[in-house]
Amino acid sequence: MIVILQPHVNRSSEEFDRLMEYIANKPGLSVRVHEEHGSLQVLTELYLIGDTASLSEEEIATLPGVERVVRISQEYRILGRHKDEHRPTGFEYNGVHFGQDNLNIFAGLCAVNTPEDVETMMQALQTNGQVCTRMGAYKPRTSPYAFQGHGKNCLPYVFELAGKYGIKVIAMEITHESHLAEINEALHQSGNPTGVMLQIGTRNTQNFELLKAVGRQHHHPVLLKRGFGITLEESLNAAEYLASEGNSKVVFGLRGMKTNMADPHRNFVDFAHVPVVKRLTRMPVCIDPSHSVGNRDVAPDGLLDVMHVTAQGVIAGANMILVDFHPHPARALVDGPQALTLPELPFFIEDVTIAREAYEKRIARSRIFQRLH
Ligand code: PEP
Ligand code: MN
To answer: What is the pLDDT of residue 195?
Structure first.
């Protein structure tokens, strides 16, 4: 059961103390306090765990300081959608809105290689009106002998260039808790010119200690990729780990499933799950067409498979696109064969706009249909 407190009530309020006393007197119950950070206010919520069946929703709803009571019938206590609740489906970070109702594009380098290529990429993003990007510094690689990313050495110029070109949010994978400290230090040293969304890759979806560490910090939002060989339910529970530690600024990323049934694509595209994740949870949903498709093959109609699957995810309501671009794919240190090129950037953005408009028209039609029936 979730007890949502009135906006003015927080941990130091008298009403809060009285509610905690009320709960302490009920047997078999424990409570976890959660703060939901909106753009204008912080809402305090109490998660009642244990024997909640005997509690009266009506009684709790009338206690001083209580705004609303939500009985949780399913899993994903914090990130899930529950019956009759209208909690927000998004958050703001560094001036950018992330929600189930909008769409942000994160085009950029799978792996940072040189300051020149980072600058060329960011300049192109600014020219095309983009304020988000992806930049890999810590790369999880199949072979221990493959390039592992420049790590903390590239952070100073990546952050400085982001500031120079008006980039507000960089999606950056971390594979170890220590990378978080390195990112925070480099942001601080460079005067916080940009924001970082911490990415947890598919190989770490169930690295529970990493999830807990990232969940304990409440500043950076998190992009959690779906595990490539586990069920959707298992990956959604992994997202809930982040929230259970206090960070509910989580975007859920679909990136394809590992199976040779996907051949000739790198992974089996799973963007049919965009509406499913939106129905089960309040998380914005990201699609990663690059790691799903893994090549630059072109269909007979002239469109790259990467663009086709992007459009499929967007027309189904995706909220974020993580996509590999590179000024010179041949010299990319990781995943060059799947990178789009800079002349393709405006074309890609236009194609996404067409698909998004189609999605908006589809939902407008469905609202009319629902009113008639
Ligand atoms: C990536 O986005 O660079 C990446 C490694 O993705 P994934 O974890 O989905 O393989
Ligand atoms: Mn990659």
So the answer is: 98
